[in-house]
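Quick log. Single chain, no ligands specified.
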Amino acid sequence: MSRRAMVRPGGRSARVQEAVHTAVRELQDERGRSELTIPLVAARAGVTPSTIYRRWGDLQELLSDVAVERLQPDTPPQDHGNLAEDLASWAEQFIEEMASPIGRAYIRDALLGAPDGDNAARCSQYAAEQIGVVLARAAERGEGAPDVELVLDRVVAPVMYRILFRPGVRDLAADYARGLVEALLDGCAAAR
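-> predicted structure:
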């Protein structure tokens, strides 16, 4: 079980987490990632280094925890009035955020700090929740829609594969996102 899973939410624990995460973000902006150390983060956060070591274990796990938090969407997907546009718009934004240099760094940090896959699962859940909102809206409008897992397989998986393993091979742009969504929805329509 990871250290983060054992921590109780709320109270002092939540305040410490917020202070440490804020310190990491500020120090990364000011000094760059390569200059971060646990003692430096602890001093900025107003906690002892042992507090950070106890909670996160090492700098990589701390950076991973911060990255996962940063990868969590702040707002629900936009509602454009139809499934195709909603899903394409979401996919474009997903690519824009994840394929950016900062997004790629967060993805690497998130995965490196949790070799057990917990962070990957959390990040996948964020995407699934966003897709779920889009699909629920479509269902409310009476539109036929694929299930969340199919969207993850046909839209999110190829994007993440290219970000992680083929970063220079193909430009990850709006056209790529729209093409994935169009192929998904065309396949679903043909199967009906």
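DSSP finds ten helices and no strands in the chain.
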